[in-house]
Every structure is written in C-alpha cells, then in structure tokens.
C-alpha cells in the first residue's frame, strides 16, 4: 500500500489575492469564467475500445495523487513566483524555486504567464525513501502564448523542450538548488495506446505511488476546459467511483423504557443519504450509503464533521453503495472538491460500470489498436 496522496504545500492566498489571480488567469486563457479551468476526463465505455482503434491516443497510468495546476508569474518586484491551484480554485504560494527559460543561455531568465497541468505525488521506495514530485501532463499557457488549440502531442513537446530540458540542465549546473526545491518536476510518461501488456505486467506493479487506473488522451485533441470527451479514464471495476455529498438523516428510534416514549438512538447508524449534484445548489438524494456498525464507529471516531462532505463511493458486489477506504479504514472524503459529481458524470460512471470493460478486454484489443496506429503511421513501420 502506497499510503495517502500528499497534501498541497504552500501558503493559501487570501480571498482578495486569489480573486485577482483568478481574473488574471482567466484573461490569459481568454475566458469569461474564473472557475477552475482544468480539463476533466470521462469514464471509459465499451465504445471507446473502437475509438482507440480508429484514432490516435496516448496512454499513461492514472496516478492517485492531487490534481493541481502550476501558475508561473511575477511578484510586485517582478521576481519569479509560483502558485499551485487546486480543484477548488484555491491558490497556494510556493517556496521560491527557479524554472529556467529555454531561450536564455545563462538559464537565469524564468517562465512567466505560464500554466502547467499535473499532479502532486509522493513516491515511496522500498528503502524508506520518499520523494515528492509534480508530474506534468499538459501545458495550457507558455510565456503568454495560449496553447489550448494546439494538439496534445505538440503541447507536451513544448513541456519537454522548454520546461524540463532547461530545468534539468540548470540542476546539473547547480546541484545544490535541487535540495531546496519543494518537489521534483518531471514530464509524466506517455506510451503508445497499444502498450497495454507492458503497462499491466511491468509498469503498474512497480509504481512507487498509488494508481487507480489508466488515462487515454487524444494525440490531436485541443485542451478542453471542463469535461473533455477526448480524455478517457479507465478504472478496474473495484476502482470505479462517484463523488457524492453525504447528508445525515434521522437516527433510529428506540424506547428506553422510562415512560417518556421513543427517542432517537444517537449511537446507532443514522440514514446516510448520498446526494448528487444537478445544478447550482440543487442536490438530490440518489442512494443510501451502506455501512457496517464497525465502519460507523470508525466514522464517529474521526471526531470530524461528516454531514455535507464529499465522499467517494463505489458499487459493491452486493449492489450497495459503499465508501472508498483510506488505509486506516475511514472514508475517503474529497475535501479537495467543492461539489459532488454532476448527475451527468455519475450516469457515465454507472454506464462504465455496466459496460464492464476489464483489463483482459483491453489486453485483447491491444493488437487491433496497434494495427490501427500502424496504418495511420506507416512511417513507423
């Protein structure tokens, strides 16, 4: 077990400053909306097996980390500063580090008006070593140039050539600088979509961090703010989940026999309602959360507010909705999210569960996916 993902480092920007940054980023993105701009994948359905045969996609593992955007900008004195942006659109000021510009031979110039997409992970090794890393998997803006309409392979090519390559050279020239950085920065590994046997047999079993599936990203697709139908997330059946808002209902009634009549039994398990997001502020009950008495005791033992939090759940073999567990057995609350999944997202997840695309299905289609790729890329044969 790899343990929980890291927490976001840095100093949380106050409301006024964060608001200024949100408008600044929206202007750079040429958007009217100031909400979190990150792309969100859709759940893998059986029809997507044919999609992989007919269109070019890249394959990577789905890291169980913390999704963040890294905003590179300047401070009041034109100094280099960086902020991590979480799903809630909060901004976290990062301890100073240098991200050298590729056009400067001295590597002292830095990137600004830049927005990188990625995830924070803690890699844990058998010798007990832990290394925090920011895995970059996309670039939305680079030095003021909006890249969202460029194809995915060109965007990650920019990351490798203009961000990672000069950074590695700078760290080779200044090895002491590596020690003070809050985390390493690397480009996330991308494979051909047919490299599924190697992914399942070699890569996933040897990952130093948590993993809960695969991601297929369209090679020629633009960067899509919000839900992107060209980013496909595949999860094994036991990992497919929905984020609900948990609402506590009534407790069972019991009669203590004192003549006062039935009263609520606050030691028993109450109604646990799983509510789904329909529109702004409109939450409706979808299902009951099933917990055992021991699980309820563990939940109470957290000594935390339970009502109103976002909780990650899956459908058990029994057909009940159950919560995903942290290593200590308590529920996985998604406090990094303001809202539960939208009802449309939930429907797609349920369809993905019903479609039941398995690891074996993916492996069996790898040859057809490869043949399709080779036909479209005869220069590689």
From TrEMBL:
Show the Pfam families listed in the entry: mRNA_cap_C (PF03919), mRNA_cap_enzyme (PF01331)
Active-site residue list: 62
State the UniProt keywords alphabetically.
Answer: GTP-binding, mRNA capping, mRNA processing, Nucleotide-binding, Nucleotidyltransferase, Nucleus, Transferase
InterPro entries per record: mRNA_cap_enzyme_adenylation, mRNA_cap_enzyme_alpha, mRNA_cap_enzyme_C, mRNA_Capping_Enz/RNA_Phosphat, NA-bd_OB-fold
Q: Which reaction does it catalyse?
A: a 5'-end diphospho-ribonucleoside in mRNA + GTP + H(+) = a 5'-end (5'-triphosphoguanosine)-ribonucleoside in mRNA + diphosphate
Sorted alphabetically, which Gene3D superfamilies does this protein's record hold?
A: DNA ligase/mRNA capping enzyme, Nucleic acid-binding proteins
CDD domains, sorted: Adenylation_mRNA_capping
**An example Gene Ontology biological process:** 7-methylguanosine mRNA capping
Q: Might you give the EC number(s) for this enzyme?
A: 2.7.7.50
GO molecular-function term, one example from the UniProt record: mRNA guanylyltransferase activity
What domain of life does the native source organism fall in? Eukaryota
Quote a single Gene Ontology cellular component term.
mRNA capping enzyme complex
In terms of PANTHER family, this protein maps to:
MRNA-CAPPING ENZYME
Its quaternary organisation is: Heterodimer. The mRNA-capping enzyme is composed of two separate chains alpha and beta, respectively a mRNA guanylyltransferase and an mRNA 5'-triphosphate monophosphatase.
Q: Which family does it belong to?
A: Belongs to the eukaryotic GTase family.
Q: What is this protein called?
A: mRNA-capping enzyme subunit alpha
């Amino acid at each position: 077990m790899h343990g929980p993902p890291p927490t976001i480092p840095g100093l949380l920007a106050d409301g006024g400053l964060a608001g200024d940054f949100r408008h600044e980023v929206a202007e750079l993105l040429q958007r009217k909306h100031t909400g979190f701009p990150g792309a969100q994948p859709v759940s893998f359905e059986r029809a997507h097996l044919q999609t992989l045969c007919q269109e070019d996609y890249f394959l990577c593992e789905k890291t169980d980390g913390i999704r963040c955007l890294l905003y590179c900008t300047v401070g009041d004195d034109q100094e280099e500063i960086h902020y991590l942006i979480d799903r809630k659109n909060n901004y976290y000021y990062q301890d100073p580090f240098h991200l050298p510009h590729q056009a400067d031979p001295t590597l002292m110039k830095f990137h600004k008006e830049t927005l990188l997409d990625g995830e924070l992970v803690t890699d844990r090794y058998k010798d007990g070593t832990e290394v925090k890393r920011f895995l970059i998997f996309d670039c939305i803006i680079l030095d003021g140039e909006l890249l969202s309409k460029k194809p995915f392979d060109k965007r990650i090519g920019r990351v490798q050539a203009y961000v990672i390559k000069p950074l590695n050279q700078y760290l080779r020239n200044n090895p002491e600088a590596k020690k003070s950085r809050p985390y390493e920065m690397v480009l996330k590994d991308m494979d051909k979509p047919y490299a599924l046997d190697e992914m399942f047999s070699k890569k996933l079993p040897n990952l130093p961090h948590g993993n809960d599936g695969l991601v297929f990203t369209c090679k020629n697709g633009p960067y899509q703010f919000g839900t992107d139908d060209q980013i496909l997330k595949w999860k094994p059946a036991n990992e497919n989940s929905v984020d609900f808002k948990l609402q506590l209902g009534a407790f069972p009634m019991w009669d203590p026999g004192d003549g006062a009549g039935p009263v609520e039994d606050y030691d028993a398990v109450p109604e646990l309602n799983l509510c789904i997001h329909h529109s702004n502020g409109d939450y409706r009950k979808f299902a009951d959360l099933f917990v055992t008495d021991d699980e309820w005791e563990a939940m109470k033992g957290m000594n935390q507010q339970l009502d109103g939090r976002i909780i990650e759940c899956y459908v058990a073999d029994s057909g009940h909705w159950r919560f995903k567990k942290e290593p200590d057995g308590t529920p996985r609350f998604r406090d990094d999210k303001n809202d539960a999944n939208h009802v449309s997202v939930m429907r797609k997840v349920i369809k993905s569960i019903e479609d039941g695309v398995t690891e074996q299905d993916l492996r069996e289609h790898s040859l057809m996916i490869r043949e399709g790729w080779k036909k479209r890329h005869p220069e590689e044969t």
